[in-house]
């Protein structure tokens, strides 16, 4: 809770005064931010963002800096057709922070306090992106590749994983750890020199490049990706930007490293681990049922292997169906008899969870899409 209050302490700071105090729609606010920054090079704006996010400060994961707002401004800048990448004036920290503060003040998210259910949903949508940065780093990003890696290379899910990432699941975890190590070991370092990979490149250059390509981009590559997505968004939904963008998972989390000439720079201290945890599932999710069905089977096998280590009587799905002849009784993956009074029904399934549920404050959307 302390970190959350720190955020609101930050929000109370006054505007620098370069922008009008009028309240704008989120779409108009994004236009104003880009107009204000159009005379400055994208490179210098990005440098301001990196310096601000990564500067040492209070020990609260940098929450008071609102890193999701900073990364959203970077996204808007890189996407813009009038802001040049390397030419233009040098942006100052004051001008950049003013833009961030202005965007926050015109985020377009209005809380309706007249209805308690809507109030809770609105609050939840607002803090969703903050909680991403607030949680402590863990090794949970290794979970999905590790589970898939329990199967051999001929397993359909292992083949699907290699199709998508160009690496086997266990190779993926090796490179995930390889990139994480210098960030953690060297006092929360923010960059990795290219020379760090020299020994690995001697033998595994192809695999290393596959991982690098998936999780690091230079400014030019980021700009191309963003503009392509922008064109697709406009074609499908029109030019109006939805205020939901403000509370969505930061777009740059897909590519947690900025590729420089001699090194990689982490956008945010915690973004890499979060990126791996999110993107593995998201990138595989595009295969739909092919992914979810295969992963459900792998996950079920793993859960059953753990249950078999317990001292309780375990009945698997086939045996359970034999014992329960009533078709109205739902099938389960396993039945665990704890004692004469307690029985546990075990069900293991993977489903595609939509991000829209996390950021929506509309009751019907949450109810019908959950």
Provide key terms for this protein.
alpha+beta, globular, disordered N terminus, 370 residues, 3-stranded antiparallel β-sheet, 4-stranded mixed β-sheet
Q: Could you give a short description of this structure?
A:
The chain is of the alpha+beta class and 370 residues long. Helices cover 55% and strands 6% of the residues.
Count the DSSP helices. 16
Report the sheet-strand fraction: 5-15%
| Order of strands, widest sheet | 1-4-3-2
Overall mean pLDDT: 80
How would the blueprint of this fold be written?
Elements: H1 2-11, H2 26-37, H3 42-54, H4 67-79, H5 93-105, H6 116-134, H7 143-148, H8 156-165, H9 169-185, E1 191-193, H10 198-215, E2 216-217, H11 219-237, E3 257-259, E4 263-266, H12 271-285, H13 289-307, E5 313-316, H14 317-323, E6 334-337, E7 343-346, H15 355-359, H16 363-369
Parallel strand pairs: 2-3
Antiparallel strand pairs: 1-4, 3-4, 5-6, 6-7
Helix pairs in contact: 2-5, 3-4
Structural notes for this entry:
The protein has helices spanning 2-11, 26-37, 42-54, 67-79, 93-105, 116-134, 143-148, 156-165, 169-185, 198-215, 219-237, 271-285, 289-307, 317-323, 355-359, 363-369; strands at residues 191-193, 216-217, 257-259, 263-266, 313-316, 334-337, 343-346. Residues 1-20 and 110-114 have low confidence and may be disordered. It is 55% helix and 6% strand. The protein has a four-stranded mixed β-sheet with strand order 1-4-3-2. The chain is globular and about 75 Å long. It is built from 16 helices and seven strands. With 370 residues, it is α+β, with helices and mostly antiparallel strands. Helix 2 runs antiparallel to helix 5.
């Amino acid at each position: 809770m302390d970190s959350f209050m720190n955020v609101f302490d930050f929000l109370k700071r006054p505007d620098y005064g370069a922008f009008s105090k009028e309240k704008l729609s989120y779409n108009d606010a994004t236009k104003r931010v880009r107009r204000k920054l159009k005379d400055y090079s994208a490179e210098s704006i990005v440098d301001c963002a990196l310096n601000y996010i990564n500067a040492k400060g209070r020990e609260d994961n940098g929450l008071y800096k609102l890193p999701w707002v900073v990364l959203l401004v970077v996204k808007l800048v890189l996407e813009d057709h009038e802001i040049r990448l390397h030419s233009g004036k040098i942006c100052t920290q004051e001008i950049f922070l003013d833009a961030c503060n202005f965007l926050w003040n015109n985020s377009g998210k209005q809380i309706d306090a007249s209805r308690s259910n809507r109030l809770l949903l609105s609050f939840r949508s607002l803090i969703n992106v903050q909680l991403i940065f607030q949680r402590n780093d863990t090794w949970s990003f290794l979970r999905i590749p590790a589970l898939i890696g329990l199967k051999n290379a001929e397993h359909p899910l292992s083949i699907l994983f290699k199709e998508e990432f160009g690496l086997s699941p266990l190779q993926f975890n090796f490179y995930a750890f390889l990139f994480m190590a210098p960030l953690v070991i060297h006092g929360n370092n923010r960059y990795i020199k290219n020379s760090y990979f020299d020994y690995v490149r001697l033998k595994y250059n192809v695999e290393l490049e596959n991982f690098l390509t998936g999780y690091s981009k230079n400014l030019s590559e980021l700009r191309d990706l963003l503009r392509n997505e922008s064109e697709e968004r406009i074609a499908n939904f029109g030019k109006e930007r939805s205020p939901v963008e403000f509370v969505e998972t930061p777009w740059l989390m897909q590519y947690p490293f900025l590729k420089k000439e001699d090194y990689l720079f982490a956008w945010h201290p915690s973004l890499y681990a979060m990126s791996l945890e999110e993107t593995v599932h998201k990138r595989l999710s595009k295969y739909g049922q092919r992914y979810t069905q295969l992963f459900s089977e792998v996950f079920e096998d793993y859960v059953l292997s753990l249950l078999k280590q317990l001292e309780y009587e375990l009945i698997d799905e086939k045996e359970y169906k034999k014992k329960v002849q009533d078709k109205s009784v739902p099938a389960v993956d396993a039945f665990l008899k704890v004692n004469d009074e307690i029985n546990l029904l075990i069900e293991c399934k993977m489903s595609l969870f939509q991000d829209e549920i996390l950021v929506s404050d509309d009751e019907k959307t949450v109810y019908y899409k959950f």
